[in-house]
């Protein structure tokens, strides 16, 4: 199963943190991850995104919490969907909320952040063909 193409599959996890260098050192040492830095896709100039790899397989990432963001450091999970726009609309129909509207992430895909009726938060994403 290709988690980047399979509707409903958990496909990515990433850490949003106020201290990305320290987090990279901690998780790299804890799990043996190799962390590769790249420019933050669609992000501010100079911001880095660190891709965590096990062997040569990318398994997640971490980045600096955007300035002024009202949330604490946290791990975020992504679920692959065939159509992020339709899935976001369905989440609202089912009583959920959209916390971050559908957004294009250059070279990655389209994503949104939804909250279920009980308050749990999850990211949904349709990957670009180049990613999957």
From TrEMBL:
Domain of life, per lineage: Bacteria
Pfam families: Glyoxalase
Identification of the protein by name: Glyoxalase
Organism: Roseateles depolymerans
């Amino acid at each position: 199963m290709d988690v980047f193409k399979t509707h409903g599959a958990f496909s990515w996890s990433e850490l949003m943190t106020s201290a990305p260098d320290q987090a990279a050192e901690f998780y790299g040492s804890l799990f043996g991850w190799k962390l590769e830095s790249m420019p933050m896709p669609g992000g501010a100039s100079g911001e880095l995104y660190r891709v965590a790899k096990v062997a040569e397989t990318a398994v997640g990432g971490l980045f600096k919490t955007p300035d002024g963001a009202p949330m604490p450091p946290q791990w975020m999970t992504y679920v692959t969907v065939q159509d992020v726009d339709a899935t976001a609309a369905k989440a609202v129909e089912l009583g959920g909320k959209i916390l971050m509207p559908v957004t294009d992430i250059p070279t990655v895909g389209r994503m949104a952040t939804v909250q279920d009726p009980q308050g749990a938060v999850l990211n949904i994403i349709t990957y670009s063909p180049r990613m999957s």
